[in-house]
Write a structure and sequence with these properties.
CATH architecture of the largest domain in chain A: Orthogonal Bundle
CATH topology of the largest domain in chain B: MetI-like fold
Structural class of chain A: mainly alpha
Radius of gyration of chain B: 23 Å
Number of domains of chain A: 2
Helix content of chain B: over 70%
Strand content of chain B: under 5%
Number of helices of chain A: 16
Number of helices of chain B: 12
Order of helices and strands of chain B: HHHHHHHHHHHHE
CATH superfamily of the largest domain in chain A: MetI-like
Largest sheet of chain A: none
Shape of chain B: globular
Radius of gyration of chain A: 26 Å
CATH class of the largest domain in chain A: Mainly Alpha
CATH superfamily of the largest domain in chain B: MetI-like
Shape of chain A: globular
Strand content of chain A: under 5%
Largest sheet of chain B: none
Number of domains of chain B: 2
CATH class of the largest domain in chain B: Mainly Alpha
Order of helices and strands of chain A: HHHHHHHHHHHHHHHHE
Oligomer: heterodimer
Number of strands of chain A: 1
Number of strands of chain B: 1
Distance between the termini of chain B: 45 Å
Structural class of chain B: mainly alpha
Largest interface: A-B, 114 and 104 residues
């Protein structure tokens, strides 16, 4: 981080001369432009996180007597949470959703598309990139509408499958598969772009040398390409896990968590508890659990990337 | 496998992938143009702009889209101004906790904003800010800041300091040199960050859904959801037309910054700080 760091000539002087008070004032003046950002970050990001730590230990609600005087209830919310069948169900579904749509779906498909695109003509690449990225740029509510129409009882998929007698209401019979497919469709572009960038850094001579030594396409992929891009793979996995973990709009608009609780991932369950039943304290306890899981993945990500400087 | 066979296998696979990605789009495009559209994408030869005409009124399209423009626009401008200011000392001076600060920002970009919404809602409720668009914009700007500061600092690092030195010799303070020298030179970077934040907020559904109270204030993301969740009585052709109108600006803006964004994907591998 020192590359572009410079001290304005006016202020540089000879370091020994400036008396401490003047140095402190200079530092403060230099930090002045950071103040608006710090205020916003402290009030609207750090504030809510600290607030959630506090209310997670209270019985805060928005209705009834506890809405006026919420009181400290210790770890009650957490005890309740881990005994709550629906919460455990939501954690399991979130796990399935993240593994299915991000780790397996987006990651693998993104890598495969990036690999297949290598050495293809410009037209082919533009068409494939265009379509995959389009699914990513579309707002999540529109993506949900597209998939709703595609999978619903009178939808496009059934129109095709009807001919062989397989039509059914997919959003009811297979809600998890529906939201996983929709999220793979929507998120693959990110992994594809990460892998395209990573693959362009793999030296062609290495692959040619391996080919000359008689390595098959598969062996070149496993023994040359994948080890070289392993950092990109790991950071991509962390990033898409973080994005998928917090996914709300797509699932909410597509299945609403249903039927019943069949596709109710943790963000949806938290939403239901906090905003439909107004159990703010309980909802915050769940928020805290999600924040901790997110923080762990985020820290792993920070360890993986190399920050220059 | 011979080279020719491998080439064909790759092309066939790419075709399958492309068709699979096009599938879900078919309905929204076709239905928006069909007068009696339902949920199936079925090419008919009766096309009209009836659905577009039906939704182009104040309540359905104009008001929500104007709300979206106001919310996303003010968030983007506020974020870029605040991030630009913050990036200046981070890019130009040697500061003691800079590395820690930058790493904390990067860490924050990973935290799930969805999870913060319960405490944010509770705070907004306590301080009587629930339903306030300006308060929500401040929150949105704060949530976009960590990434915006990172991007702005990287763009600012690309502006040579030697150019500023001339201004310093002339006695210009940091405000003047930031506005007159640095800002014009990093205009493309500023545009990228602005559009990036704008498009992000354009698609944001959860935050306005939770923090705004009346339909009059809602952006298009929430209005479309309301439109589409009235199961059974939805005019599907109109829903599709509305979706196209709402999606178009996001796509146009993405195409505009596409070539600048391409470089940021090596981001996942290493980050310049």
């Amino acid at each position: 981080m020192t590359v572009s760091t410079v001290t304005p000539p006016r202020l540089a002087g000879s370091p020994g001369r400036g008396e401490p008070r003047r140095r402190a004032r200079t530092t403060l003046r230099r930090l002045l432009p950071l103040v608006p950002a710090l205020i916003l970050l402290v009030v609207f990001m750090a504030g809510p996180i600290l607030w959630s730590v506090y209310i997670a230990f209270t019985n805060e609600t928005l209705t009834g007597s506890a809405s006026v005087n919420s009181r400290f209830v210790g770890v009650d919310n957490f005890v309740k949470m881990f005994g709550d069948e629906d919460f455990r169900n939501s954690l399991l579904l979130t796990f399935v959703f993240v593994v299915g749509s991000a780790v397996v779906g987006q990651n693998t498909l993104g890598l495969i598309i990036a690999l297949l695109q290598r050495g293809r003509g410009r037209v082919v690449r533009s068409v494939v990139n265009g379509v995959v990225i389009a699914a990513w740029v579309v707002p999540e509510v529109v993506a949900a509408a597209c998939w709703f129409s595609f999978l619903s009882e009178e939808g496009t998929l059934n129109e095709v499958l009807g001919a062989i007698g397989l039509s059914q209401d997919w959003l009811f019979t297979a809600p998890m598969i529906a939201i996983i497919l929709a999220n793979v469709w929507r998120g693959t572009a990110f992994s594809m772009l990460v892998y395209s960038a990573a693959l362009s850094d793999v030296p062609g001579e290495l692959l040619e040398a391996a080919a000359v030594d008689g390595a098959t396409t598969w062996r070149r992929l496993v023994h040359v390409t994948l080890p070289l891009i392993r950092r990109s793979i790991l950071s991509n996995l962390m990033l898409i896990t973080l994005q998928t973990l917090a996914s709300f709009g797509l699932i909410y608009a597509l299945t609403g968590g249903g039927p019943g609780t069949a596709s109710q991932t943790t963000p949806l369950y938290m939403y239901e508890q906090a905003f439909r039943y107004f159990e703010i304290g309980y909802g915050s306890a769940m928020a805290l659990v999600m924040l901790v899981i997110g923080a762990v993945f985020s820290l792993v990500y920070l360890r993986l990337i190399k920050v220059d400087g | 496998m011979t080279r020719v066979a491998a080439r064909w296998a790759a092309l066939v696979s790419l075709t399958v992938v492309t068709l699979a990605f096009v599938g879900p789009f078919l309905w929204v495009v076709l239905a928006s143009l069909q007068p009696e559209a339902n949920l199936t994408a079925k090419p008919t030869f009766r096309f009209s702009l009836e659905n577009y005409a039906a939704v182009l009124n104040w309540e359905t399209v104009f008001r929500p889209v104007i709300n979206s423009i106001i919310i996303s626009g003010t968030t983007a401008v506020l974020t870029v101004v605040v991030a630009g200011l913050a990036a200046y000392p981070l890019s130009r001076y040697k500061l003691r906790f800079k590395r820690h600060f930058m790493l904390t920002l990067l860490f924050t970009t990973g935290l799930p904003v969805t999870a913060i919404m319960v405490p944010v809602y509770s705070m907004f409720f306590r301080f009587n800010l629930y339903g306030s668009v300006p308060a929500m914009v401040l929150f949105l700007a704060a949530s976009a800041l960590p990434f915006a500061i990172w991007m702005m600092k990287n763009f600012m690092d690309g502006v040579p300091v030697s150019l500023e030195e001339a201004a310093w010799v002339d006695g210009a303070g940091w405000v003047r040199s930031l506005l007159r020298v640095v800002a014009p030179l990093m205009a493309p970077g500023v545009a990228v960050v602005t559009i990036f934040v704008f498009v992000g907020q354009w698609g944001n559904f959860f935050v306005p859904f939770v923090l705004l109270d009346t339909p009059e204030k809602q952006p298009a993301a929430v209005t479309i959801y309301t439109f589409f969740s009235q199961y059974g009585q939805v005019a599907y052709g109109q829903l599709a037309a509305f979706s196209i109108i709402y999606t178009a600006p996001a796509v146009v803006l993405y195409v505009a910054v596409n070539k600048y964004l391409a470089g940021s994907f090596s981001f996942a591998g290493s980050v310049k700080g």
